[in-house]
Design a protein that fits this description.
Length: about 675
């Protein structure tokens, strides 16, 4: 049976079988992993990205670079203390928010009423404390503005950036106030940086000159330099961090924040466009006013800046009155739904229509964007599995029937559970999961058996949220994570290997939620946390980056395949046929270092390979280190380590994957040679 050469092969074969068998029996034994040239799946270019909504002050106070909180008194009740959120008096004026005098625009009826006492010593005014602080940076030009009017006061107004203890970093003196609203604009160029973020935007007038008089102010704004210099743009450090992960999808504007607590308080696209003075803002679903300064066009421009495919959520006729009582959620009856469908058609025309032939396209052009935006994907609602009956009965059908007739090239994503039958049948469906590390590790194989029937998943929200297997959305004492942990992120990576291996049926994914202001948030953990001055990239951030930046075009078959039996090592191999790079992405979710003997069914074309990896600080397990996180106070506990290595053989390599780690190995492999 065996010829001469087989005699040589036999011991090798036996040895390899022994090794393999022992690997299955003994998880610490080295794994023999053969990487073939057989492409199993073409990887869609949309595989990795983010879901976006204003939650945790991710927009206002986060990515949106505006520095002044409650800048136009949107979404507040005049006369209440709450209406003065982030504003404080300086040297004794009486401050209130009022709508009893016309506001700066119909959309912004509220203004700040500043009543100066009859007797004043020195300057008097008010301050905005920003989004829990303001970063003052030498060399930056800050661009500011506000509206003011007074029937009697006509003196100068001085605006400045100061520390909370009174050090002035930059100031501008403005004159010309009259009895009608006027917009004052100015710039600040601080010559020194503030040592911390305890700084305010300060406005004052001369006390003697203003004594006994009333001055009204409205619609303030103060911007630092923004990402790519876009007007009304993004905070540079956050934008750069997100951009550095090269996301290829951007799902917006929610999430629950699309839906509103009532139909009327839903996210309305047409109230988020145009001059800031014409955007009324709204109280978002996460409990704080949204300025909507980050509006539809800003989102679309941002997606373009990222090179990401926009996935636009359109309101599908439900709101969330009381999150924990589904019976309270207002659902638009079938007979009343058409106006909302018409509104969605207008919205999509605004985004995609020819400016010369369509009124909504012309409106877009009048706002500075002549060229239509590329738009392929419409998500009909958000988490409609919570109201499946009306979705299945008429909402999905009415939206999809009308929109596909109008926009035949669009693809529609359903948001019920896959088991809910829809008419027309869904071809793409959104799947959300917030859960424990063990759920995500097991989930690495959930797509292996997904039916190959033409329907595809969009994993539209996912994250490890807790160590608690039975209550993943509970409190921190119950196991909820404050920040992504290394153990959680390795579990996410394990799951992502499953998405990538099955990216014929998972066409896109979106980590969520993405950003968190440490001073005011509703959801943990998040991929980037920040305050007014600094940011921290989490372990999950690095996993997203490692998976997204290192993209193959095709998945390669391996032997063995990554299965439950090969856990706690999880992997996916891929090849990029443009760059001729072979990738092996491996998550080791276990507590031990694990070695793999890698065998290639081909010769790599360079003897230099590279690795990038996150793992606990020491290479061997340290008790308690697996729940380690990067935090604002310890931002660099875990950062990716990149290295290159030389291969002795062009068809094999041994690598030890550290305990609780995620690694991407790259090799040059030019098939065409
Ligand atoms: O990501 C936070 C919330 O979780 C989203 O708004 C919602 O879609 C999901 O339930």
């Amino acid at each position: 049976m065996f010829g001469p050469s087989s005699r040589l092969l036999l011991p090798l074969l036996v040895a390899s079988l022994v090794l393999r068998t022992s690997a299955l029996l003994n998880p610490l034994a080295p794994l023999n992993l053969q990487i073939t040239k057989n492409a199993t799946v073409n990887i869609p270019p949309t595989l990795y990205g983010y879901m976006w909504e204003d939650i945790n002050h991710s927009g206002d106070g986060g990515l949106y670079a505006e520095l002044l909180q409650n800048r136009a008194f949107q979404g507040v009740l005049p006369g209440t203390l709450n209406a003065l959120n982030a504003w404080q008096p300086y040297n004794g004026p009486r401050l209130s928010v009022t709508s009893s005098t016309p506001g700066v625009s119909a959309a912004l009826p509220n203004s700040l009423q500043v009543q100066i006492p009859a007797v004043v010593y020195g300057p008097i005014g008010f301050e905005n404390t920003g989004y829990w602080g303001i970063k003052v940076q030498q060399g930056w030009t800050y661009t500011g503005s506000f509206y003011a009017k007074s029937d009697t006061f006509c003196g100068a107004i001085t605006a400045s950036l100061r520390s909370s203890t009174g050090t002035t970093f930059a100031s501008a003196t403005l004159s010309g106030i009259s009895s009608t609203w006027q917009k004052f604009t100015f710039t600040f160029n601080p010559t020194t940086s503030a040592p911390d973020i305890n700084n305010v935007f300060h406005v004052e007038v001369d006390g003697q000159e203003a004594a006994g008089q009333t001055i009204y102010f409205g619609m303030f704004s103060l911007f630092p330099p923004t990402f790519r210099g876009r007007k009304n743009g993004m905070r540079i450090d956050l934008a750069e961090a997100l951009a550095a992960t090269q996301p290829s999808v951007w799902r917006f504007p929610g999430g629950n924040n699309l839906e509103g607590a009532s139909w009327d308080t839903r996210w309305k696209w047409n109230e988020t466009i145009g001059p800031l003075e014409s955007r009324p803002g709204r109280v978002g679903d996460w409990g704080y006013p949204n300025t909507d300064g980050l509006g539809l066009l800003e989102y679309l421009n941002w997606a373009e800046d990222l090179g990401a495919e926009p996935i636009l959520g359109i309101w599908s006729g439900i709101s969330i009155q009381n999150y924990s009582d589904l019976t309270t959620w207002p659902v638009v009856p079938e007979a009343d739904l058409q106006p909302y469908i018409d509104d969605a058609i207008n919205q999509i025309e605004f985004i995609t229509a020819d400016a010369s032939t369509n009124e909504w396209g012309a409106l877009r052009a009048s706002l500075g964007r002549e060229q239509p935006y590329a738009l392929q994907y419409i998500e009909v609602g958000n988490e409609d599995q919570f109201q499946p009956a009306s979705y299945a009965a008429y909402r999905w059908n009415m939206f999809v029937t009308a929109l596909s007739a109008q926009f035949p090239n669009l693809q529609f994503i359903a948001t019920t559970y896959p088991s809910t039958a829809l008419n027309p049948p869904y071809m793409k469906i959104d799947f959300h999961e917030y859960n424990s590390p063990s759920w995500f590790e097991a989930g690495a194989f959930m797509f292996d058996n997904y039916p190959r029937n033409g329907t595809q998943y969009f994993v539209g929200e996912y994250a490890v949220t807790s160590t608690n297997d039975t209550n993943a959305l509970g409190t921190i004492p119950q196991g909820r994570l404050a920040y992504p942990s290394l153990a959680g992120s390795t579990a996410e990576a394990a799951f992502m290997t499953g998405m990538e291996r099955n990216s014929d049926v998972v066409f896109a994914s979106a980590y969520a939620p993405s950003l968190q202001h440490i001073m005011n948030y509703q959801w943990t953990p998040d991929i980037i946390t920040y305050d007014a001055g600094s940011i921290v990239k989490s372990t999950s951030y690095y996993v997203q980056q490692m998976f997204s930046v290192n993209r193959g075009t095709q998945v390669l078959a391996t032997s063995p395949a990554s299965t439950n039996d090969t856990a706690p090592l999880y992997w996916v191999a891929s090849h990029n046929n443009v760059t001729n790079i072979l990738y092996l992405k491996v998550s080791n979710t276990g507590p031990d270092d694990l070695t793999a003997y890698l065998f290639f069914d081909f010769n790599v074309t360079s003897n230099i390979g590279t690795s990038v990896s996150i793992s606990s600080p020491a290479l061997s397990p340290i008790s308690g280190q697996f729940n380690i996180s990067n935090t604002l106070t310890e931002p660099q506990n875990i950062i990716p380590v990149a290295s290159s290595f030389a291969l002795v053989y062009m068809d094999k390599y041994n690598y030890t994957f550290p305990a609780t780690s995620v690694t991407v190995l790259s090799f040059e492999a030019n098939w065409s040679m």
